Amino acid sequence: MKKILIPIMGLTFLFAGELEIGSTMPLKDLELADISGKNITLATAKGDAGTLVVFSCNTCPWVIRWEDRYVSLANTYAPKRLGMIAVNSNATRFGGEDSLEEMLEHAKNNGYNFPYAQDPESELASAFGATKTPHIYLFDGDDKLVYRGAIDDNAKNAKKVDEPFLANAIDALLAGNPINPQTTKALGCSIKFK
């Protein structure tokens, strides 16, 4: 992960940047409050074949356009031993529209069939370098990052997707083939860090 010092108004801030391909999954044991009422970690959400981590939320228009694909991806790949978790890192909104109660309602209304958890203090998003919702990170069975970025090339219409980046990456991972591309640009709303 690149670390960049950014001067802003006389102060210098450290920005870690996004996880680089080949990086090990960070903070696997960080406890996240899940909509199930239990705590969950990335270690418990992972699958034998790999793990998909989706930084998401309840209200972003980009998430709303893409989240039907979350469910279809889980339906397709969970039986193939791929673990999946959606993580809400909008810490400044946990008292309102991204509260656990609102997340539970949102998950029910949209047929979520995977864990959906809150990231305390946006720690996980910071460690990953995630900045958008949705922002996708795919890890192999050894917890190494193999793909990051967008789900596909058409948020507006699943039927008009030309490049299913994530599905292609998962298929290649499961087949033991090289993933190309390994990175794409994540499009979406900014994560609301504290």
What does this protein structure show overall?
With about 190 residues, the protein is α+β, with helices and mostly antiparallel strands. It has one domain: Glutaredoxin (3-Layer(aba) Sandwich). It contains five helices and eleven strands. The strands form three sheets. A seven-stranded mixed sheet has the order 4-3-7-6-5-9-10. A two-stranded antiparallel sheet has the order 1-2. The N terminus is likely disordered.
Radius of gyration, in Å, reads 16 Å
Describe the largest sheet: 7 strands, mixed
Q: Rough shape?
A: globular
Whole-number average pLDDT?
A: 92
Distance between the termini: 22 Å
Helical fraction equals 10-25%
Tell me the number of helical segments per DSSP (H or I, 4 or more residues long).
5
Strand content: 15-25%
- Any low-confidence stretches, pLDDT <50, length ≥5? 1-15
Biggest sheet, spatial arrangement of strands: 4-3-7-6-5-9-10
> What is the element string, with H for helices and E for strands?
EEEEHEHEHEHEEEHE
CATH superfamily assignment?
Glutaredoxin
CATH topology (fold) name: Glutaredoxin
List keywords for this structure.
194 residues; disordered N terminus; two-stranded antiparallel sheet; Glutaredoxin; 11 strands; seven-stranded mixed beta sheet; globular; 5 helices; alpha+beta
Furnish the topology, listing elements before pairings.
Layout: E1 4-8, E2 11-15, E3 32-34, E4 39-40, H1 42-45, E5 50-56, H2 61-77, E6 82-88, H3 100-109, E7 116-118, H4 123-128, E8 132-133, E9 135-140, E10 145-149, H5 165-175, E11 189-190
Parallel strand pairs: 5-6, 6-7
Antiparallel strand pairs: 1-2, 3-4, 3-7, 5-9, 8-11, 9-10
